[in-house]
Amino acid sequence: WPVEKNRIMLVEQNELGQLSEPLASVDTDKELPSRLAVHPKGVEMVVGFEETCAHFELIFAKDATTPHDIVKVATHTKTLAASGEQSSVTFSPKGDMLAMGSEDGVIKIFSWPEMKELVVQEDAHDDSAISDLVFSADASQLLSVGRERA
Known about the structure:
Layout: E1 6-10, E2 24-29, E3 35-38, E4 44-48, E5 53-60, E6 67-73, H1 77-82, E7 86-91, E8 97-102, E9 107-111, E10 117-121, E11 128-135, E12 142-148
């Protein structure tokens, strides 16, 4: 599928490993999406852009199991926008926490969906940028990967 714009798309994979045409998509215009965390329930996501993050939801028709649209929602806009560029975003397995790691080495954990700040760890990897985060299965631990800042 030719992509002429910055876009978030949802496709299905069949039993042969082939991908379908897009089931749902949203153009992000000049905002370049670079990180994505899908909530465990599969109906919302946080997308990281070059300078901010945003909250999106999948829209389903009544009684449908396949979404037909992706929309940016106003929920959490202020908190996510103020977070700046995030190099990693991830939800906890139960979806009750959102962790974000930044280019300046800060890890933040928020309650979800309240977006109450639970943890802020400055320079989590000394002078390194956070490149990835993942919660343990019971969310009692957060594994982070740091890399030398450019």
